[in-house]
Design brief:
The complex is a heterodimer of chains A (about 900) and B (about 375).
Chain A lengths: L1 E8 L8 E3 L6 E5 L6 H13 L6 H5 L11 E8 L2 E8 L5 E4 L5 E3 L1 H11 L25 E2 L9 H18 L6 H17 L9 H47 L1 H148 L4 H24 L1 E4 L8 E2 L2 E2 L5 E4 L3 E4 L5 E4 L6 H22 L4 H31 L5 H18 L8 H63 L2 H32 L1 H41 L2 H62 L3 E5 L6 E6 L2 E4 L5 H23 L4 E5 L7 H14 L4 E6 L11 E4 H4 L4
Parallel strand pairs in A: 3-19, 3-20, 8-18, 18-19
Antiparallel strand pairs in A: 1-2, 1-4, 4-5, 5-6, 6-7, 9-12, 10-11, 10-13, 13-14, 15-16, 16-17
Chain B lengths: L2 E6 L15 H23 L3 E4 L11 H10 L7 E3 L12 H9 L4 E3 L4 E5 L4 E6 L24 E7 L1 E2 L14 E2 L3 H4 L4 E5 L5 E4 L2 E3 L15 E7 L7 E6 L4 E9 L10 H8 L7 E12 L3 H14 L2 E12 L6 H4 L2 H14 L3 H22 L1
Parallel strand pairs in B: 1-2, 2-3, 3-4, 6-7, 7-10, 8-9, 10-12, 15-16, 16-17
Antiparallel strand pairs in B: 1-13, 5-6, 11-12, 13-14
């Protein structure tokens, strides 16, 4: 379709007429400022084609200029199928006039109908302002008219007209012949399929789901009832077993037998009690007889023991008498030996005393000799001591006569050192003159000097040079005067000290001091030797030594003249032997005294024993006589025999009853009696419990039987069978519908794929010119461009930038336009209302190139507020202002 | 001297028939009580001395008291003795249904035989030897004791047993039968007549041994059920005269019918209509109709109409047309021919229908739905 002319007035913002005349087949740019009414041009075009002139209400009011009651009016001249039409539409009843190529003039409804046929759309029955220009009411052409601000809002127009596109292509190309009937059929099949399965997940729903739930529920109910039925069977079984048990108990008369056993054991226990009583009596009698026998036996035994004791005591007394005699003889002999030993001791003691006297005399002789020798040594040492003390006195006096001490010498030496230091200091500051004269005898201050002498001058000096006169030297070194004074003072101090000691020099003083020291040392040595002599005799001084000499002489005088002494060593030996002999004699005497004492003590003990035995013998004899006086021995023996006989008989009777009692096993009997009674009680309890259990089970079984479980189970099984059949039938139906739906959907998919292929083929080059590596992705069901695939990754359309989406929207239209042209032989008119406002410079240039090339095939009308953006295009530039004319 | 007894069995009172959908289930359940009343009337009318019921009087051991009361009430229709033998559905378990029945108050003429043994009645003219089941299943032949059972001279000896006569019953393996009964028990025990229960059809094993079958049919097996046997024993040792009396109110029929697409000018359903018209008592018939064969798609609506019509005529119709293959008469539908997509789908489904098995069933039905939908769309 191609639009050649457009005029409008009284249309929305355009109260004044606007005329765009002679629109060419290529690119036309209509520029206008914002709010100038560019978009109204597109709206007017849509209204002319797709709205009935008869519209009313708010739909019509939305077309009327605000605040007026004027009739909106649009005129369009267009070419469709190579034929030119003039359409004039005044929005009032019957306001449509269509003049065809052959002059045919249609007005009103026929004109509207012809337009519908020409453009292939269906008007809505009624339209409100909000529903104006819905894609489904505008036909294929509307796809190519992009409204400002909406070009990037997805591809709703494409979706809405997709079916028409397909139809268009099928009609035009005949590639796929899927018709409306198939689509309606698919819709019906889908609806039926959706009665059984959810649309998205394909889960069972509706009657199918209900049938499944019902069958599952019934299965659960059957399982529950079967379980209850098993419980019922179990209770019936329990009841049968309990009744069997009761029957067996009754048949076996367990209770009666238990009672009989109790009675029997009661009798047995009673008999055992009687036996126990008899045994107890016999036992008592045997004990009494035994006790009597025991008493008699004890008396007999006592009598026998006493006789035996008497014999033993008699024998013991005889033995003791013999022993006493032997002991008396032993004491007598001991006394004799004791006297002899005393004599021996006396003799030994006298011999020893004699030897001791000789030994004392010999000792005194030896002491006197020793003291006399010591006196001699004392006297001699006293002489030596005197000489030493004299030497000490002489030496001490000589030393004291020398006045110079070593300390004073030390002082002189310090003064002499001070003189030397002063002299050295003076020499350092003094003028030094070394003479080297030949043939001249020099003098200094008139004193001759050696011709090669070195002179140190510290004061004015006159050097005589012989015939050559003299030289006066006036030394002027730093501090020379002071140094000279110090030197003079030091020398004066030394001279004064020497004078005081009366010595000419320091050397002479030193010699005197050494002499004085030698004399002092000699006096000290004499004193030390004198002290050594005193120490040798243990005395402090000379007087003490003298005292010691006198004391020694007095002790010697006291010892007197002892004469000649015996050999002290021999005497010492004899004394030792005498002491040994005395000790031996004393030991022997002590031994004999002890033996005598022992014999005497033994004799006393034995005498006491003999008295005791005699006493006991008398007592025993008396007691035995008393017993025999009561009952003689023969009578005693007879009574003992009789008691023994009685005891034996009683014990035999007791054993007899004990045997009987043992065989009766009374303990066992009592235990068995207890067990039998317990068993009787248990049997009775068991029977009562069984009766109660049977009663309870019977009640339970009656209740369960009356509950109609079998009926309910049979009903549930019947219901389940019916439900299963229904489910099976519904499942078959559902699966059949699903199969039919799947097959139809697959066929439709294949058909759609065939439909999409030509669109995709034409879109791909456009997209690649914009985005080199991108592949367009179209939705199978709507022909939507759903996104782009780049390097295997798919990007959703919505995630692309607004600019890219806007540009792709234009490209998709171009692709469809190309397809329509190629397959149908006629291209649509493309109208783009500010459709590229988000494009950057590069993209805009690319898009302009694409549009320029497309304009060679299609009529393109660009409405824009940015005229300069499109300069450079080979286009017919119009200004909206220029198109506006006065009414 | 002649003894006349009415032999019946397998009443299974309380059987719910819940698998029978619709109104028929409750009616069938109710009919099982009514037939007891008819049996009483029959015995009375035929001058029977006693009614012997050979087991399975009740459908289960746990039934509500109202069912027991109703059974007692139904047996008031005959004043003579009713001898009831516990079977595998209602074994004589201690504390079980028979004790409950007694507690509810049985008329004196109704006598459950819950223990094996001989019962003499009719003033010594008749001795009934009963072998009740006390469990659902017994592995031993409970009637064996009858061989040695002595009876006074001049007494008719009749056995009453519930179980499987070994090696005779159709469909039951000879070696796997529970509750077995020696097939020659009548001979070995010197019985004048052996009244058996458990097999729901009427069946003569020998001159003296019969299954009476259930008096009111309850299944589709064609085994001549719905009868009671009037047995006349002229004298002990003499062959009994056995007369079959119809007692059923309903017929259970199972028909398998193959549709042929164009058998004559009257269409593929005519023969089926004839078969159905041939039913003797449609209102008393419980019918299972299983269809197979082929049918033009255009006739499917007619088949649906037929189904609905006969649901109204019959007591109950169990209708199964899953085996019917709809012929793809696509050419009859111009609409189809105009739409290659539909034709493609129809071709694929037809191909799937040839595979066999469940997939074929689905495909056949899907094809039928396709036709149906197209036809609807065309209208």
């Amino acid at each position: 379709m191609r639009i050649e002319r457009l005029a409008l007035r009284h249309f929305r913002t355009h109260r004044a007429p606007v005329r765009i005349e002679s629109i060419g087949p290529g690119l036309t740019v209509v520029a206008g400022a914002n709010e100038e009414g560019k978009s109204t041009i597109l709206t007017a075009l849509r209204a002319a084609f797709f709205l009935s002139a008869n519209i009313s209400g708010d739909a019509r009011a939305s077309l009327v200029p605000y605040g007026t009651s004027e009739v909106p009016e649009v005129e369009v001249a267009f070419v469709r199928g190579g034929r030119r039409y003039d359409l004039r539409k005044r929005f009032q009843r019957g306001g449509t006039v269509l003049v065809g190529p052959d002059g045919e003039r249609l007005q009103g409804e026929p004109a509207e109908a012809r337009i519908e046929t020409l453009l292939g759309f269906e008007r809505p029955n009624r339209a409100s302002a909000r529903e104006l220009f819905k894609p489904e009411h505008m036909g294929l052409q509307a796809l190519f008219w992009l409204e400002q601000g909406k070009t990037f809002e997805g591809f709703a127009p494409v979706a809405a007209t997709g079916r028409r596109l397909a139809g268009f292509m099928e009609d035009e190309v005949g590639a796929v012949a899927a018709g409306e009937a198939a689509k309606a059929l698919l819709a019906k099949v889908t609806a039926r399929r959706n009665l059984y399965y959810t649309e998205k997940r394909g889960d069972p729903t509706g009657a199918l789901r209900d049938a499944r739930i019902a069958a599952t529920h019934l299965e659960g109910e059957i399982a529950e009832l079967a379980h209850r039925r098993e419980e019922f069977d179990e209770r019936l079984g329990q009841l049968a077993r309990r009744r069997d048990e009761r029957r067996r108990l009754i048949e076996a008369d367990a209770l009666g037998r238990a009672e009989a056993e109790v009675r029997r054991l009661d009798d047995e226990v009673e008999r055992a009690k009687r036996l126990a009583d008899a045994h107890r009596i016999a036992l008592s009698e045997a004990e009494a007889a035994g006790a009597a026998l025991e008493v008699l036996q004890r008396r007999s035994d006592e009598r026998t023991r006493l006789a035996h004791d008497l014999d033993a005591l008699t024998r013991e007394a005889t033995v003791l008498a013999a022993v006493r005699d032997e002991r008396a003889a032993e004491v007598e002999a001991a006394l004799v030996r004791m006297v002899a030993a005393g004599d021996a001791v006396t003799a030994a003691r006298a011999a020893r005393d004699g030897i001791e006297a000789s030994r004392a005399r010999a000792v005194r002789v030896r002491e006197r000799a020793e003291r006399e020798a010591r006196l001699v040594r004392l006297v001699a040492d006293a002489v030596v001591l005197e000489a030493l003390l004299a030497t000490r006195r002489d030496k001490t006096a000589a030393a004291a006569a020398i006045p110079v001490t070593e300390r004073e010498v030390e002082g002189l030496r310090r003064l002499e050192a001070a003189v030397a230091r002063a002299e050295t200091s003076l020499a350092v500051a003094a003028t030094t003159l070394r003479l080297d004269l030949v043939g001249i005898e020099p003098t200094k201050d008139g004193v001759p000097l050696a011709s090669d002498a070195a002179l140190h001058m510290s004061g004015p000096t006159l050097l005589g040079l012989g015939p050559y006169g003299a030289i006066r030297v006036l030394p002027g070194g730093e501090g020379l005067r002071a140094r000279q004074d110090a030197f003079d003072a030091a020398r004066a101090a030394l001279a004064e000290a020497l004078d005081a000691l009366g010595v000419p020099s320091v050397g002479a003083a030193t010699l005197q001091a050494e002499r004085r020291r030698d004399l002092s040392e000699a006096a000290a040595r004499a004193e030390a030797e004198a002290q050594a002599v005193l120490r040798a005799h243990g005395q402090a001084d000379t007087d003490a030594l003298e005292g010691a000499i006198l004391a020694e002489r007095e002790r010697i005088a006291r010892l007197g003249d002892a004469g000649e002494g015996d050999d002290l060593a021999a005497i010492e030996h004899a004394a030792s032997a005498a002491n040994v002999r005395l000790a031996a004699a004393e030991d022997k005497a002590e031994e004999l005294r002890t033996a005598l004492q022992t014999a005497r003590e033994a004799s006393a003990g034995e005498a006491a024993d003999a008295r005791t035995v005699a006493s006991r013998r008398l007592e025993t004899e008396g007691r035995l006589a008393d017993l025999r006086a009561d009952l003689d021995d023969a009578a005693m023996a007879a009574r003992l025999d009789a008691a023994s006989e009685r005891s034996r008989n009683a014990e035999a009777a007791s054993r007899l009853w004990a045997g009987e009692l043992g065989r009766a096993e009374p303990d066992l009997l009592r235990e068995r009696q207890t067990m039998a009674r317990r068993r009787l009680e248990q049997e009775a309890t068991a029977l009562r419990g069984l009766e109660r259990a049977i009663d309870a089970l019977e009640a339970e079984v009656r209740a369960l039987g009356g509950a109609g479980i079998d009926l309910a189970l049979a009903e549930a099984k019947g219901d389940f069978e019916a439900a299963s059949r229904r489910l099976e039938r519904l499942t078959l139906e559902a699966e059949a519908w699903r199969l039919l739906h799947e097959e139809m959907a697959k066929a439709e998919g294949r058909r759609r794929a065939r439909v999409m292929a030509p669109i995709q083929e034409r879109l791909r080059p456009y997209v690649r010119r914009l985005l080199a590596d991108a592949e367009p992705v179209l939705a199978e069901d709507s022909l939507h461009l759903t996104g782009l695939a780049r390097r295997g990754e798919e990007e959703a359309f919505g995630s692309l930038s607004i600019g890219t989406r806007e540009q792709l929207a234009v490209l998709v239209r171009l692709a469809f336009a190309d397809l329509a042209l190629e397959r149908g032989g006629e291209s649509p008119c493309l109208i783009l209302d500010d459709a590229l406002v988000y494009a950057d410079e590069d993209r805009l240039e690319r898009m302009k190139t694409i549009l320029q090339q497309a304009a060679g095939r299609h009529q393109i009308l660009l409405l824009t507020c940015r005229r300069r953006d499109y300069l450079g295009l080979d286009a017919d530039f119009r200004s909206l202002e220029d198109c506006r004319t006065e009414a | 001297m002649t003894v006349r007894i009415l032999h019946t069995a397998d009443w299974q009172l309380g059987k719910p028939f819940r698998h029978i959908e619709g109104d028929a289930g409750p009616i069938l359940r109710d009919e099982r009580f009514k037939v007891v009343e008819r049996l009483g009337a029959l015995a009375r009318d035929e001058g029977a001395d006693a009614i012997l019921v050979a087991g399975d009087i009740f459908d289960g051991e746990s039934l509500p008291d109202r069912h027991l009361h109703r059974a007692i009430q139904a047996m008031r229709s005959f004043p003579g003795p009713w001898l009831l033998l516990p079977g595998n559905h209602d074994p004589a378990k201690p504390g079980g249904i028979w004790e409950r029945l007694r507690r509810l108050g049985l008329p004196d003429n109704v006598q459950p035989l819950c223990e094996p043994g001989a019962v003499t009645l009719l003033d010594g003219r008749l001795c009934v030897m009963a072998a009740p089941l006390v469990t659902r299943h017994a592995q031993d032949d409970l009637s064996a004791w009858m061989d040695g059972q002595a009876t006074p001279g001049g007494t008719a000896r009749v056995g009453l047993v519930h179980g499987t006569a070994t090696g005779i019953l159709p469909g039951r393996a000879a070696d796997s039968a529970t509750n077995p009964i020696a097939r020659d028990r009548a001979r070995s025990a010197g019985l004048d007549y052996l009244a058996l229960g458990d097999w729901h059809g009427c069946l003569k094993l020998d001159q003296r041994t019969w299954y009476s079958g259930t008096p009111e049919p309850d299944g589709y097996i064609a085994n001549d059920s719905g009868n009671a046997l009037l047995v006349e024993i002229p004298s002990p040792g003499a062959p009994p005269a056995v007369a079959r009396h119809r007692t059923a109110a309903h017929h259970w029929r199972s028909i398998e019918h193959e549709l042929l697409p164009a058998e004559d000018d009257t269409g593929p359903l005519r023969r089926l209509e004839d078969v159905l018209e041939g039913l003797v008592d449609p209102n008393g018939t419980v019918l299972r109709l299983k269809l197979s064969g082929r049918m033009p798609a255009g006739s499917h609506g007619d088949l649906m109409a037929l189904e609905e019509r006969w649901r109204g005529h019959l007591r109950h119709l169990d209708f199964d047309d899953g085996g019917v293959e709809v012929e793809a008469d696509l050419d009859d539908l111009g609409l189809l021919a105009a739409d290659p997509l539909v034709a493609e789908v129809a071709d694929r489904l037809a191909g799937l229908a040839e595979i066999g098995g469940e997939e074929s069933r689905r495909a056949r039905m899907a094809l039928r739905f396709l036709h149906h939908t197209l036809k609807e769309a065309a209208r």
